Amino acid sequence: MNLKLVVAAIVMLGALGYFAFMAFQSATVYSYSVSELTALGPTPEGKLVRVNGKLIGDSFERPEASTLAHFILTDEEDEGEVVAARYDGVLPDLFFNPHSEIILEGSYGSDGVFVSQNVLVKCPSKYIEAEDEDAYDQSDYPTEQGS
Length: 147
Fold this sequence. Notes:
elongated, CATH 2.40.50.140
């Protein structure tokens, strides 16, 4: 009877370990820069990744009375690498701040467009100095409503 109990405990622990491993694997989201993402190419179907970059201000387009936005992100260091992105939803207020780092979560398609399910914006106040804040002019970027 003790042998049956030991075998049952081993099977139970093995099953729990397997389920924990699978849950961790499915919850993992890899984060890439724009240049890393473009070098890797399209993401496998069903796989979410994150890409971080800066908004190219004049690339933002949103039709009036729509929540679908199209824009382009670039690497902070390398202005040459860009990725086109699409997001359907309300954007955070700091999205248009030129000092903000934008993090998109979604998938990169074979058409070269990153379809984002979630948009995060790192607060720029930690990274810029006071004189840079004085130079920030909000009129350089369109409002969320597309104006």
